[in-house]
Amino acid sequence: xxxxxxxxxIFYDVTNAFGTVCVPxxxxxxxxxxxxxxxxxxxRSSLTGRTPVVKMTQRVGKWERIVHSSEVSxxxxxxxxxxxxxxxxxxxxxDMLLYVLIGFTVNYADDTSSLISAADxxxxxxxxxxxxxxxxxxxxxxxxVLNASKSVLVQFRGRxxxxxxxxxxxxxxxxxxxxxxxxxxxxxxxxKWDDHAQYVSGRLHxxxxxxxxxxxxxxxxxxxxxxxxxxxxIMSYGIVIxxxxxxxxxxxxxxxxxxxxxxxxxxxxxxxxxxxxARPLFERYNLLPVFSIYLFEACLIIDIAVPLDANVExxxxxxxxxxQPLAVELKEIYNLRKITVVPVVISTNGVVLxxxxxxxxxxxxxxxxxxxxxxxxxxxxxxxxxxxxxL
Length: 391
Prior knowledge:
It is a single chain. The protein contains 14 helices and twelve strands. By secondary structure, it is of the alpha+beta class. A four-stranded antiparallel β-sheet has the order 4-5-1-6, with helices on one face. A two-stranded antiparallel ribbon has the order 2-3. It has a two-stranded antiparallel sheet with strand order 7-8. The radius of gyration is 28 Å and the shape is globular.
């Protein structure tokens, strides 16, 4: 979007993904990827020859009878609820990217999505159809079934549009939507996080009801454990992404203050008198506000330097070495998870290193930001030279 590209995302749904894995194909792929010998025999023995039985208990008055179904051999799928089932499924679709050559396809367990971009809508829709056809051929070759009715297409745009692309998948049209839920995050077509903030706030309000039911029956330590399990985990998930929205953080913070007041037994609903300040309660329970959780997850040390052209690379190395002790100290003092040192180095003539793209992803910056900073560096150098010549 920063490069004026048209972008859409397709979030695919695989019907009964773990239960439809073809075991012979899966074992052949593991063997091709270097799993052989005892390890392959162990996988084969655990995936083949399974004969599940259904057990039912029938009660009639005081009498009780246990009924067993006949044994049925299972030739497809991974063990239901098994710890290795997601890993086995990933191993079965590890070559998906070799089939889907258009767009950027991401596969996380049984959640598959494709991000497609183009210069105009016509080319974008054509690429989306080709990408969907490639994924459909891959699933047919691996005996997997894509569910078009549960798949969702979201076209990212700055404003609402009445026209939606018609992407066909196995004879059905993929429904278009303004927002979709992917890996627990509510993604909107306008790239705003209002829906996700409302979702997180709703989960926090549910936790308020839970704390009210537990308060008086368990000790304070147990209540704090409930807070971390049902509230802090929800707020922390993906906050590096959606926490960049100030409105989203403020919305969640209102619900968090309500939750903290309920934890302390204070009034958390509106009334004739103002609510008590939540700040002492955060200090009392040693809990972080959602703004601090965001900083906890994404802390950066940024230093800007404008050296000579020949000293750009050396300056980057010196900056990273210079701030490394500070990063370690801040991490220990504030109990932070990660601190990244980001040196922004542009020479007096606007020269930057080749790895500037990584820096743009970290901050994040765009090509326009780079051009503005290079322009500022060059104009600053010209201003110094002009003043020196005027002496």
